[in-house]
Amino acid sequence: GLRIAEGFGQTEMTLGIGNLFGTQLKPGAMGKPVPGYGIDLADADGNPVAAGETGEIVVNVKNGAPCGLFTGYYRDEEKTAEVWHDGYYHTGDVAWCDEDGFYWYVGRADDVIKSSGYRIGPFEIESVIMELPYVLECAITPVPDEVRGQIVKASIVLTKGTVGTDELKKEIQEYVKTHTAPYKYPRIVEFVDELPKTISGKVRRVEIRNKDKEKVKARFAFCFPDTYEIGMSNLGMRLLYGALNNDPDIWCERVFAPWGDMEEAMRRHDLPLWALESQKPVKDFDMIAFTIGYE
Fold first, then answer.
1. How far apart are CA 66 and CA 137, in angstroms?
2. Mean of per-residue pLDDT scores for the chain
């Protein structure tokens, strides 16, 4: 019989957006700006965004800080200047506002994933994945990608007794596709024993991002005009499959295969269809070599 209401606040401020007592709720929405805070959503240039568009949550401080907002970081003028500028306090959090004035949380600005021109918030995908009964915890982070700029990765802690299989990865991916949008699904799913966290229990996505940047040394294809008849052995197929699917057990392998056998795989995994060294179309070569490196 409890009425659960969401809201938004920070260490630097009290409740700035909320579903106040006596107001109408929208499940999943943070609510509306609390009177007196002067909250708005702004784009990268500081301009207000239209309804339905994502923007950074900012607080108008042109006439001074509203009651409840901090006035600076202790003995750190440089950090204070990073968030207090142009007449606004910049929270670093991203949201969007619907036509009824309700704010919907997207994520931290540095956590938002930019993939193929889309801005993807981790919070929405995490919320959907957490609906699955065998998921205990989840963190969504970006992984660098030559074609899309970034791709979505899901680091997932499973419930006790659940085995992380390739079939389970596909099930999670399909679930996200059908419950959000096809472009938001995690192209990489990694099952982990635990997620890195702060002492207060917040997931440290930056630590996951940094580890992935260190791990992925190369993800590209190059070709050469030789016409050797080299077939794919079972080991070669396993190495290629593991490399293309970011298998952490593959640290540095080179796999060769006839071009005719690899075109479909390249397109399916969005690998570039050109020779990096010669800049000639890949179809001009009879043999292709994949090199994927991991720490």
1. 36
2. 79
